[in-house]
Amino acid sequence: MITSHEKAPRLGARFRFHDELGQFIARQNREREFACACPPDATVKHMVEALGVPHTEVGLVLIDGKSAGMNERLHEGAQVEVYPHSRSEDCAPGKGGPDEVRLRFVADAHLGGLARLLRMAGFDTLYDSGFQDDEIVLLSGAGERIVLTRDTDLLKRRDVELGCHVRSLKPDQQLGELARRFPLTRQARPFSRCLVCNVELVAVARQAVEKQVPPGVWARHRRFKSCPSCGRVYWGGTHWERMRLRLGALIEIDDLAHEGC
Ligand SMILES: [Zn+2]
């Protein structure tokens, strides 16, 4: 794996990967400290990824008990502890305040269901079933969007700054995974975004949509929103209510009705 350095003298370091990071490394090294011979100029990032863990999944590194950056070089005898990201509510920049960075995502071609749920919750999420890896990296904009994927090789790419490895195969469980890592509950604005175009919905006058919705719907509802891009009209009907219940079960949103029609 580290063939270019095979003839150089190696330094010995000891590693331990905590909690869910164990899923990325060789089975015999899980939940234990193990020794590893490293190239003499190896950085934390180099070794963490060589051992199988994408840099995007690492929340904290301790070398000999002290916090270390991913680009820090290792030394002979280094004791390296690698932890995953902490709980979502603790790690967001500007935590809950006006400076908190709005979460934005780009989902890979296999995560259409998750992308739809994120849009339902109001998160700006780029997705296309034809996305190629290079396109996803470009769209991630050097950290402007969080790359969502089940592909660890994509997350190991140098130009992917922010990413999240999605473990589950089911969209609802995938959203639950994200909610444990990112402050989705705090930032959600349910039913504010077109599920198809990812564009923010705008309120429209009831009279303006009379011809666009079934007569029964028009008679029963007072508030409508539409997508400025595709023109779809949204209202708080039974489909909306089902989505509200589904979303509420996943990310504990209290004020779902607030954004509804
Ligand atoms: Zn639309």
List of distinct ligands in this structure? zinc ion
Fraction of residues in β-strands: 15-25%
Number of helical runs? 10
Helix % is: 25-40%
Oligomer type:
single chain
Largest sheet: 5 strands, mixed
Rounded to the nearest angstrom, the radius of gyration is 22 Å
State the end-to-end CA separation. Answer: 56 Å
Number of strands: 12
Question: Helix/strand/pairing class, anyone?
Answer: alpha/beta
Order of helices and strands: EEHEEEHEHEHEHEHHEHEEHH
What's the structural domain tally?
A: 3
What strand line-up does the widest sheet have? 2-1-5-3-4
Low-confidence stretches: 256-261
Basic shape:
elongated
Give your account of this protein's structure.
The strands form three sheets. The chain has a five-stranded mixed sheet with strand order 2-1-5-3-4, covered by helices on one side. Strands 7-6-8-9 form a four-stranded parallel sheet, sandwiched between helices. Helix 3 (112-120) packs across helix 6 (171-181) and helix 6 (171-181) packs across helix 9 (238-251). It folds into three domains: 3-84, Beta-grasp domain (Ubiquitin-like (UB roll)), CATH 3.10.20; 89-187; 202-259, no CATH class. It is 27% helix and 18% strand. It is elongated and about 75 Å long. The protein is α/β, with parallel strands linked by helices and 261 residues long. The model is unreliable at 256-261 (pLDDT under 50). It has helices spanning 44-50, 88-91, 112-120, 133-140, 152-155, 171-181, 184-187, 215-220, 238-251, 256-259, and strands at 11-17, 34-38, 58-63, 66-67, 79-84, 104-107, 124-126, 146-149, 163-165, 202-204, 224-226, 233-234. The structure holds zinc ion (ZN). The site of zinc ion has 8 residues, from loops. Residues 194, 196-197, 199, 227, 229-230, 232 line the site of zinc ion (ZN).
